[in-house]
Amino acid sequence: MNAPVMVLNANTKRESGRTAQLNNIQAAKAVADIIRTTLGPRSMLKMLLDPMGGIVMTNDGNCILREVDVSHPAAKSMIELSRAQDEEVGDGTTSVIILSGEILSIAEPLLERNFHPTVIVRGFLRALQTALDTCNKISRTIDVNNTAEMREIVTSAIGTKFSSRWGDQMVDIAIKAVKKVVTKRGDYTEVDVKRYVRIEKIPGGELSECQVLDGVMFNKDVTHAKMRRRIENPRILLLDCPLEYKKGESTTNVEIMNEEDFNSLLRQEEEYVEQICANIVAFKPDIVITEKGVSDLAQHYFLKAGITAFRRLRKTDQNRVARATGATIVNRPDEIQESDIGTGCGLFEVRKIGDEYFAFLEQCTDAKACTVILRGGTKDVLNEIERNLQDAMQVVRNVHFDPRMLPGGGATEIAVSTAITKSVDTVEGISKWPYAAVAAALEVIPRTLAQNCGANVIRLLTELRTKHTQADGSSWGVNGTTGVAVDMYKLGIWEPYCVKTQTLKTAIESACLILRIDDVVSGTRKKKN
To answer: Which one of 86, 286, 380, 391 is the catalytic residue?
Structure first.
């Protein structure tokens, strides 16, 4: 008899066929179970120790899964989902994982009955199409400039988070910050929250002191103690070059025969700095901010001219100052023009908060960048509030791009589930089983909401299904705080259309992807010497 041929390396692990599919489904369910309790207003927090020994306390799905170290390949691809969701729409990171895990777990009995994965996938994709059509039908459009309606939406995004205790204040901060950075160029609207809204966390004080500035602030003090620390209507000049003599790129040796040459060398350096300062002083700025260094001699000239100078400001901060004050960042001091000077700021002041000095540029006339100051008891609280605020700002940003809304509190999921159940008979062949199974999977969101606040799950879901079969019952969902069925129009919980549809698309498409895997080969390559 012939010896078996070894194609794969001896220490390679290989799972194929049914085993691989069931193992992938188990891994996905395990990931979904990690963050199931963090959904809804009665959600729990998770405490994670990162490899460096720091502590992260959060209920943000993406943040939890980012810190969890996972070795199973299918679980890794699930974790990627929440990252994609976070980058695309910024909210709904928990729901997408829970939904995906549930859709995979309903595929398990179908696989055991020998359904082929492609049949299941066909049914799932058909259900996704029905779901998107239903979402389109039950959505409503809101007015972006109506603050009351905007607050409802952001409240529902923040309501499930740790900072919901200071709900109204956080909501206002998010709306105000995003409205500042909205820029319109013709038909194109740009809302760059990541780059132009800086969140400055200062431990100490209390949460009621959080605010959005009409301008920017940065963590720097003036370079010379005698410089002015408060200027009204300052003229601001931004530089991105050093205000000191040029140092050689590499080591430079100079041979000097007599001592006058040494003096003239020093004098040249001083004259160079003096020339730069003279160019700057000619434009009579009140504040000079550079990204590089400022030598002692330059500080002396600036002090004589009554100019306040800051040095080594970060590039990102410099860009925000430029957007807020209308200044242009100049590269060479001899090319400054009057138009480069920023005059859009009303008040400059250096203040001491806690142990550190902060420079405030406030009362800007048309600030297109802003700083949000967060105060709170500990670093952990501040980090969590920052994450919540990021989510809230992303929601406001999404609404600016697509002002359609869907009812929250699991109402959309049940409406979609009812629509799928009603249209089962339109699907031909055996695809109708996986198609109908998606309807059962979608109920996981309202079910988890009910479980997290300790309601009677079965009774509540039966009541909701009954409501949704009536003519105008598509907005009934779970009140996540009390656990009773309620009309979302009355409760005022709405979610952005793009977040919901993105959740459905991502969850179902990823489940289809994981189901089609029938072979997992994992092996370690021998290290080459």
So the answer is: 391
pTM of the model: 0.80
84/502 Cα distance (integer angstroms)? 10
User: In the annotation, is 391 catalytic?
Assistant: yes
94 in catalytic set: yes
Instruction: Write the single-letter amino acid at 357.
Output: Y
Average pLDDT over residues 234-263: 82
Chain centre distance of CA 368: 19
Pairing label, strands 347-353, 182-185: unpaired
Dihedral angle, C-alpha 304, 305, 311, 315, nearest 10 °: -170
141 counts as catalytic: no
Stretch 287-307: mean pLDDT: 88
Which of 58, 86, 91, 93 is catalytic? The answer is 93
Annotation says 501 is catalytic: no
Q: How confident is the model at residue 213 (pLDDT cuts 50, 70, 90)?
A: confident
Taking the CA atoms of 173, 177, 179 and 180 in sequence, report the sign of the dihedral they define.
positive
Give the closest residue to 95 by CA, choosing from 483, 457, 492, 480. 480
In whole angstroms, what is the distance from residue 103 CA to residue 24 CA? 13
Looking at residue 292, its amino acid is: K
Read off the tokens for 142: 């809101």
Angle at 474 between CA 471 and CA 480, to 5 degrees: 140
Q: Which of 344, 350, 342 is nearest to 227 (CA)?
A: 350
Euclidean distance between CA atoms 432 and 127, whole angstroms: 9
- Angle, nearest 10°, between helix axes 18-34 and 73-88? 50
- List the catalytic residue out of 38, 58, 94, 418: 94
CB 465 within 8 A of CB 453: no
